[in-house]
Amino acid sequence: MALKIRLLTLLTTPVLALAVGCGGDVTYKSGVDGSKTAAELSDADVQAICAAAKETSEKWAENNKDALCNLTGGVAGALAGALGGGDPVAACETAVTDCKSKAFVPEETECNPKLEGCNVTVAELETCFNDTLAATEKVMDALASLTCTELTSENSNNALEQYVEPASCVAIEQKCPDISFGEPAIGTSTTS
Fold first, then answer.
1. Which of 77, 82, 131, 142 is the most buried (most CB within 10 A)?
2. Residue 113, helix vs strand vs coil
3. Smallest Cα–Cα separation from 16: which of 133, 107, 120, 119?
4. Within 10 A of 22 (CB to CB), how many other CB atoms are there?
C-alpha cells in the first residue's frame, strides 16, 4: 500500500492528492538499464529516473485534465456542503469551470529516491509504475465523465474505489517495505 501511495505521489498534484491514474498513451520509461538493481544506480541513473517521472507526470496531467478538474470540483462541492458554504453542485461547477480555464503548470519539487538496501531492478520499478498507470486509467475515465450532481452525491467515490493495486507493486513492497521516492518528482497546479 505504501508503494502505491508513493508512486501515485509522483503522478498526482498537491491540490489533487486523491486523484490517481494516467492517460492511455503515457508510458513511463526511465532510459536506465532495466537489469540494474537499486543498489547499483549512479547519481546519473537516479536523475534519469526522476526526469522520466517528471515527463510522465506532465503528460499525465494534460491527458487527465478533465478528470482532475472534475475531482477538484467534487472536492470543492464536498467542502461547500460540509462547511455550509453554499450549494455543493454550484461550488463544484464553479471549481470545474475555473480549473478547465487554466493551464496545468509544472511545479518543481525534489525527487530523492530512497532505495538503499532494496534489491529490485529498474525494470521492476518501471513495470510497477506502468501497471499503476494502467490500473488507474478507468478511474480517470470515470471521473472525467461525471457531472457535478454526480460528483457531489454520496456515490461519487465509486470511481476512486475502482483502483486495485497492481501485483507488480505489491511484490516490490514485499521486497522493499521502506522504499521511498521522497517528494513528488513533479506537481502541477493551475494558473491562468
1. 77
2. coil
3. 107
4. 26
Contact 90/27 with Cβ under 8 angstroms?
A: no
Asked whether 191 and 102 are in contact (CB, 8 A), the reply is yes
Beta bridge partners of 188: 106
| Number of other residues whose CB lies within 10 A of the CB of residue 138 | 14
Q: How many CA atoms lie within 13 A of 172 on its CB side?
A: 30
State how beta strands 103-108 and 186-191 pair. antiparallel
Handedness of CA 95, 96, 98, 103 (dihedral sign): positive
- Local confidence pLDDT in tens for the 192 residues of the chain: 333 333 333 333 332 333 333 345 678 889 999 999 988 889 899 889 888 988 887 887 788 888 889 988 988 998 898 888 789 999 999 999 999 998 776 566 667 777 777 889 999 999 988 888 888 777 888 888 889 998 888 766 677 777 888 999 899 888 887 776 654 333 334 444
Q: Is residue 21 part of a domain?
A: no
Segments forming the whole domain that contains residue 167: 2-14+29-191
Domain assignment of residue 167, yes or no = yes
Domain presence at residue 20: no
What is the total count of domains within the chain? Answer: 1
For residue 146, is it within any domain? yes
Sole residue written with cell 505521489? 9
